[in-house]
Prior knowledge:
By secondary structure, this protein is an alpha/beta fold. It has helices spanning about 5-15, 20-25, 30-50, 60-75, 115-125, 165-175, 190-195, 225-235, 280-295, 310-325, 330-335, 340-345, 355-375, 410-415, 445-455, and strands at about 55, 85-90, 100, 110, 125-130, 145, 150, 180-185, 200, 220-225, 265, 300, 380-385, 420-425, 430-440. The chain folds into two domains: about 5-235, Amidase signature (AS) domain (Amidase signature (AS) enzymes), CATH 3.90.1300; about 265-310 and about 345-450, Amidase signature (AS) domain (Amidase signature (AS) enzymes), CATH 3.90.1300.10. An eleven-stranded mixed sheet has the order 1-5-2-8-10-9-14-15-13-11-12, with helices on both faces. A hairpin with a 3-residue loop joins strand 6 (about 145) and strand 7 (about 150). The longest helix is centred in the last third of the chain and has 22 residues, at about 355-375.
Amino acid sequence: MEHSMSAQSSESLCHLNATDLVAGYRRGDFSPVEVLDAVLSRTERLNPRFNMFFHIAQESARQEALVSERRWKEGQPLGLLDGVPVSIKDSIAMKGAPMQVGSRALRKIVSAQDAPPAARLREAGAVLFAKTTMPDHGMFGSGVSTAFGVTRNPWNPAFNTGGSSSGAGAALAAGLGALSVGTDIAGSVRFPASLCGLASLKPTHGLVPHLPVVAVREAGPMARSARDLAAMLHVLAGTDKRDYGSFPALAAGVPGWREPKGLRVGLLLDVGYGNKAEPAVVAAVRNAAETLARAGAQVEEMSALLNVDVLVPLAQMSATTMLARFEAMSQEQRDLSYLPLLEFAERARRLTALDYQAAIQAVDVAKAEVVRATAAYDYVLAPVVNKVNWAAESNAPDDDDIYRLTSYCGMFNQTGQPVGCVCAGFDERGLPIGMQIIGQRFDDRGVMQLAEQYEALRGFDMQWPECQ
């Protein structure tokens, strides 16, 4: 395999999706080494401006690419992602790479082993080339971090990437790696997918093992197309004995491919609490619903999801978790911690044990109502966030109450339902607008199928930013 790509064609390799890369490897059009070199060269040019990565595993990635190239030459690839460059979120352990969870208060610890997502990718031959930036402790839906600074959106660097998988979103939009793994506890693979024009999946809880185990957090694939999500989920899913909550991967072919025709689709524009979506967001999601209706789906607009402000008890629970984390730190670490997060955690100090139990109960009641309200539909379409975007340096559109950013997303972590995100359009500034596709538990493949079908029907092709 000759390594003679021109500078222009080398740069174009960075914009190929994972499925296109694998097809090219199979034909012998280019090699994993050529692709990695192109990605590393583009990373060197763009990372200082957009701040996607805090660690580049250049030497180990090059070795992985060389071994992958040999497998392809011998006609013995390991799987669907052999030779595909993939980045990993800061909070996911990757052997030999540092982990800081976005906080300057925590020293960089070099991971001694791979967490399950990194392990599954490595076993499939993927080339793990970088760790992505994130906000402190993953507690903000933005790209602002005390450890790494501000991560900027390749569509327009004045705007936010969303978070907490902020570096992953920026990297994919900029053509730095075909795939990335994020994590999601209240929208953290969906916010950056929405703000950066990507596809992502928050899987059914337990389908993708992760450490440490958190009852409402999932590791999820992020990509430039819904088709790539399916290949990545196939690799990530399955039992890992280190995660006691993980279950076997869903059986191949279940469910079978379903066309939009006849699907029962709910259109959820009002969750009943938080800030309602602005007109541009509503218009994009409504237009997507109409697109699926023209393809034969039975679309019905839903009433408000809940009649209580569930963000209040959810915030109480999260604040309590963060307060306990800060109490375990030294005073020096607390002094280095992000002040808005410290202030958020301090809300929990005046809560009693009975208050905390009441918050848990209120969320449990809301979970049952969400499951009931969505049970009549195969899938539900909804906004990801109430705003198209906001300033790169801000934690949220409304800095006075950052938790309200999760209004459209958070409850589906609580119920464990799979949720895909796809780009549903752009506003007048050319900024992407994402849409959630919410499915029933264990129907992850169905969610991804509908996402892929919608991408084929939506009437526009993604013209990714050149980032000159």
